[in-house]
Design goal:
Radius of gyration of chain A: 18 Å
Number of strands of chain B: 0
Number of helices of chain A: 9
Oligomer: heterodimer
Number of helices of chain B: 10
Helix content of chain A: 25-40%
Distance between the termini of chain A: 31 Å
Strand order of the largest sheet of chain A: 6-7-8-3-9-10
Radius of gyration of chain B: 22 Å
Largest sheet of chain A: 6 strands, mixed
Order of helices and strands of chain A: EEEHEEHEHHHEHEHEEHH
Strand content of chain B: under 5%
Shape of chain A: globular
Chain lengths: ~240, ~260
């Protein structure tokens, strides 16, 4: 998948979360990691790439197809993507199973039986057997994130976008969730992942976009980025994060 | 969710507490009433029991319709106050503030003698239901708005992320969660609506209060009618509050 961003800008009030970010990936990039210091624009870029946000200026294309900026076009794009966020973003009034079946039925036009079958298949695959009928508050953080991943995968998305999916989890739960992401990556799912887990990114990513202060400071293959970072900023970032692990 | 006070004491203990409380209330009530030198006579009330019944049915019937009107109107006003168009927001905000800021009595008099008159509507019951529905609807709009705006931004973002459009977001994400948060305020408001319907007597609707006023005048007894009147309201409002608490329990889930 070839991602291309041209001077993408997104402002929140006076603050520019993305400040003219431009980069391009290889056509072979399949698991793309967005790295960089907090506040550098990772989450915002992830949302722009997934059409959850529309940039104020600039444009993004995926495999030479420019993402639409109008609301109805962006909605269609979003429906072809799957998202997992940092927090616990399951719907608290629905069970794990209903969290998955509701969008399948209402957005993707499946029947109740089809949706239930697909949801159960994913919940079991992600190790949530026996938890289908629990509400999010009855699940652990790791289970919630796996249910959220199951919901994102259920409609067979072109692109799975994960925004720091483990930053609210303890190390054990982090491991559970990263195992799942790794399996997906190995099974051929296209993934864009914003994360601080650089040792994980090093294992699964094949391309890295390094963001700082709203700009893409580097965009290179994962091997190049981790072995020979081009900017001092990236070097410091990698050193800082690997100090204690 | 914190455990509701109801669930903290066992039913047996609550019954044990209830006895002395009731006894105390009865003694206080009796002492107060017997200190007033007044000759109670209940014949008049008994003779007018059928009229009293009609009045009660009228009150409950028009309250029920006004509730439906107020909930629908409250919902529309809430949507209007969240509209993307500034004039719509201003209009709905203005309506809510005007209606909540002025007495129901004034609204009834203006609505009946001026507006309904100008529109040639000669049905006090119809006018009364609409006016009462508007009054309570303005309060409900704010209760609904508070509940809807308490739904977190991350829930709304998730709704967009799973591909819901605006209508689907309201239907599947906002309303089910807001319903639970709006429930206590809403039932309180509906209980108020039943009591506020007593003011409709000023525009000539023969609801319960009006019937009691007529009865008091006819029997030359100024007080007797008001005791059964209070009971007649409590018979409905207490079970409504109880039902509301049970519904809250059913909608309860941790967030």
């Amino acid at each position: 998948m070839k991602l291309e961003a041209q001077t993408v800008t997104k402002r929140y009030g006076a603050h520019a979360a993305l400040d003219g970010a431009s980069f391009a990936t290889d056509a072979e990039a399949r698991v793309i990691a967005l790295l960089g210091p907090s506040g550098g624009g990772k989450s915002t870029l992830l949302r722009v790439l997934g059409s959850l946000l529309v940039p104020d200026a600039g444009s993004v294309s995926i495999d030479a197809r420019t993402l639409p900026h109008d609301e109805s076009g962006a909605l269609l794009e979003r429906r072809a993507n799957g998202f997992v966020f940092q927090g616990y973003n399951l719907f608290p009034h629905l069970t794990a199973l209903q969290n998955i079946t509701l969008p399948l039925q209402e957005v993707h036009g499946m029947t109740n039986a089809q949706a239930t079958q697909r949801a159960l298949e994913l919940l079991h695959r992600l190790g949530l057997e026996g938890h289908e009928h629990k509400r999010p508050s009855q699940l652990s953080g790791g289970q919630q994130q796996r249910a959220a991943i199951a919901r994102a995968l259920a409609p067979k998305p072109r692109l799975l976008l994960l925004d720091e999916p483990t930053s609210a989890l303890d190390p054990v739960m982090t491991g559970e969730v990263l195992d799942v992401v790794r399996e997906l990556a190995e099974a051929g799912q296209s993934i864009i992942l914003a994360t601080h887990e650089i040792s994980f990114a090093r294992k699964v990513a094949d391309w890295v976009v390094f963001l700082a202060a709203g700009k893409a400071a580097e965009s290179s293959s994962a091997a190049d980025f981790f072995n020979r970072p081009q900017t001092q900023l990236a070097q410091q970032y990698l050193d800082g994060l690997s100090k204690y692990r | 969710m914190p455990a509701s006070p109801d669930s903290t004491a066992s039913p047996v203990r609550r019954a044990l507490y209830a006895f002395p409380l009731l006894a105390l209330a009865s003694v206080a009530f009796y002492t107060l009433f017997s200190s007033v030198a007044y000759q109670w006579s209940w014949d008049g009330v008994w003779r007018y029991r059928q009229q009293f019944g009609y009045g009660w049915l009228t009150t409950m019937g028009l309250s029920l319709v006004a509730m439906i009107v107020s909930i629908a109107l409250g919902f529309l006003l809430m949507l209007g106050r969240r509209s993307p168009w500034e004039p719509v927001r201003m209009f709905c905000g203005g309506v809510v503030e005007l209606v909540r800021g002025s007495p129901l009595l004034v609204q009834l008099l203006i609505g009946h003698y001026i507006i309904a008159n100008a529109l040639r509507i000669d049905q006090p019951i119809f006018t009364g239901i609409i006016l009462l529905g508007c009054f309570e609807g303005a309060y409900l709009a704010e209760i609904f708005r508070g509940a809807v705006e308490s739904i977190s931004a991350s829930q709304l973002e998730t709704a967009r992320a799973v591909g819901f459009d605006k209508v689907q977001t309201y239907r599947f994400v906002i309303i089910p969660q807001a319903l639970r948060r709006a429930l206590p305020g809403t039932t309180g408001q509906l209980v108020s609506l039943i009591k506020d319907s007593s003011l409709l007597s000023v525009i000539g609707i023969e609801e319960l209060v009006q019937k009691v006023k007529i009865m008091n005048a006819a029997t030359y007894k100024p007080l007797e009618g008001f005791l059964p009147l209070a009971l007649a309201y409590l018979i409905v409002t207490l079970p409504l509050s109880h039902l509301a608490r049970r519904l809250e329990g059913r909608f309860a889930y941790e967030t």
